[in-house]
Structures
1.
Amino acid sequence: MTRARIRAIFAVPVLAALGVFLFWGFAGVPDFGGFHGRYGTIINHRATPERHTTNAVTAVVFDYRGVDTLGEEFILFAAVVGVVLLLRKGDEGEPPTAPVRSEQVRLVGAVMVGVAFLIGLWVIAFGFVTPGGGFQGGVVVAGALLLVFLTAGYRPWQRLAKERALDPLEGLGVGSFVAIGLAGLIASGPFLHNFIGSGRTGTLASGGTMPLLNWATALEVAAANVVLYAEFLEHYVAPIFAKEPR
Amino acid sequence: MVHVPEALHAVVLVSAALLATAVVLTRNTLRQILVNGVYGLMLVILFVVLQAPDVALSMLVVTTIAYPLIVLAAIARTRSGKLTDEQEQE
């Protein structure tokens, strides 16, 4: 018996079974748009009167289920620390020059660095009033900084993404999330309790501790992403530029 | 609540399915990253149409910034210096 034939004998029944189970699963799915979850409805009705925030998602992420977000922050933190432990080796000598040759890329990129950075800050700042938040905005800010590498080359990027500045910033992001949680514990009982006054609905001065936790998350996510990009670029991409003729 | 016509749902869902197939059928890994980005953007539109703007924003940053960079870095590493198609054909 040939190898292909043996493979077919095993593959056909397995794929058929998979198909049957998939079909069975899809047959039991609720109708399109059908939603019977109570939690979402309750949150939608209570978030704005209770917490004075107009984005119910942020109210869940930074208030009602704030502890879950703390856990997620530490997942990201631990993942980036793991990457740094594996990849960082200390000073590797003179960084390679990698001039970006296309003028168009440089021009568009140079404009976009500022634009993307501003959009990132905006997504963070208004995260609890309109859609957005610290996680999304943080990645946009990190992406804006990454544009420096794409448009200006490796050396300006390396001057920007300094380990000595980024590592403490990342720690500060996670740390201040915990600190705000502990402040709630001291001020009013439960950990991460929203102990600051709710403020005026629809303005930046609303939501109590939500804006603070939002900015803490933004700092952690932005710094973590830049650290991640810096390590990947240094060890995976920089050696390629080093080989190119200068 | 904004009313979204059902035809729009259908168009976006079918487009997402087609683009997902296109990602699988693209064999060149560098091009696959670009096609995957377009597929991700279609999912962003899908989330907006289904009125989940927060999820759309998360999808947007993951699919256009975080994911391509990490995959690109990995490809750059495994190809050991071959960055473009031209260089590959040499």
Note: The interface with chain B takes residues 32, 55, 57-58, 123, 131-133, 135-136, 139-140, 142-143, 146, 225, 228-229, 232-233, 235-237, 239-240, 243 of chain A (CB under 8 Å).
2.
Amino acid sequence: MFALSGIEHHYGGVAALRVAEWRGERGERWLVAGASGSGKSTLLNILAGLLRPSAGSAVVGGRDLTRLPEAALDRWRGRNVGYVPQRLHLIASLDVLDNLLLAQFLAGLSVDRGAAVKLLASLGVDSIASRTPDRLSQGQAQRVAVARAVINRPALLLADEPTAALDDANAQATIELLSEQAEAVDATLVVASHDGRIRSAFSRRYDLEPPT
Amino acid sequence: MNLGRIAYAYAKKSPLTTVLNLALLILGVATVALLLLLTTALDERLKRDAAGVDLVVGAKGSPLQLVLAGIFHVDVPPGNIPLAEVTRLRANPLVRSVVPIAMGDSFRGYHIVGTEPELLDIYGARLAQGRSWKAPMEAVLGAEVARRSGLSLSASFAGSHGLAEGGEVHADEPYRVVGVLERSGNVADRMVLTGIDSVWKVHEHEAAEHAETPSDDRAREVTMALVRYATPLAAATLPRQINSETALQAASPAYESARLLTVFGVGSDVIRAFAVFLMIAAGLGMFIALYQAMDRRQYDLAVMRTLGASRWRVCGVLLLESTILAAAGAALGIALGHALLGLIGAWLPAAASLASDSMRFLPGEAGVVALVLAGGILTALLPAWRAYRLDVATTLAKSYP
């Protein structure tokens, strides 16, 4: 499903990431582990086509992201990648339902209100569909962010440090939620985290070493 | 979900800023539109009123006053001229026609003008009802006078002394309405027309009351004469001839009204500059609001990029937002300008003729709208550039300020 090889990335001359070889198949659940500064977020950004690595090739879903023109890359990302950022970043000006519809609209897909409501219901948050994000609890916001990431049935579901701010019970629940949703849309799940509590939930792990 | 809805959601998120900038913009646009409508209406009205007359001949004094009194009927005339002079003028080969007018009284603020039926030709006025005046004390009302006073055929009314409202009423010398004019769209709508002998009659009576000398002995006088040239050549010689060789004064309505517009123009330029300041303030406000919002918005824009939006699209959101605001400001401003014009017409009778057509749109207004839209796009350019250059990965990794 994805194959990275010879990836290197520098920020202003400082090495931030080095991945010699890493492959994953469709439907697998990966944990990208490593200390802070090992380049976990950078790796996710490269997988999402948000960042072009300084060197190497990143083939995701059969496409070499490093060679795709920018506009095509944006389009590809909208249809194929679901991304749950660490700080969730729900759009505060839009209500919960509109946050989901926005994802459909920006991916260039037809806006399907019914599907969005159904998805919210399956996550148990349909009752807050018309609330704005500032009136959600942390758990609700997390569910909405996951819903927004899977609404377009992506092939690749990415989550950056999803459990960093959560207690043990919620951390486990969040990982279960991500796994369930990835399974529901048949997506490959990649979670970047240095949280030791969730290691056991993943069958596959890729350990990042800080580049030197 | 569409771009418009996103823009609306952001505008709604900071309602106070949005409303303030929109209000500034609306006021600026409305002021410019109103000025444009008023100056255009004034310009057209002056031109229409002065259209039939090449030269006004009256007593020495200010030429502008002569034109204001004799053409636009908004001022008192400088004095009278002997009827004999009018007769002499008629004999001049450069002159096609001379229409004498005598003024002194008014009816509810409208000048009562003693004249000859030929005046109707000058203003292209036609009778809607009744007939022209023949005997003394018969009067024909302009369309606006008839409408506002409610007088109809064979009603009688008394003129009041002087050309301003509130003069002594000549109750013992009433006029009788024998005709009403069709609306002609010029000063004829605002006149009460009668024979010169009517005016003489009213004032002879008065003269007899106040003076010892019998009025019959005095030479007949009129207030001024409206002259049309026989040849365009007359414009070069006749005014000079009259001004230097006679005790009369000649004034050109076209020249004097152009002068009037110049004087009025200074005032309207000041107001226009003020309105432009309002619009610039609105533009600056929009710019600052958008630019400040960028600090918070960058996270939203970064998320939109992760959801598949291209660089151009996130720019488009910002551009669309300010364009919608500018378009709303322009449209509402133009509407307010026209509404104000309508109100002015309803509340200020003196300006009613300038505001008669408040639903008419001028090409200049399209220019104002285009300028405001361009300004709206301009204010969003810098924030849009920041949005275009946004580094998604770095922004998502940053914490909120």
Note: The CA atoms of residues 28 and 278 of chain B lie 5 Å apart.
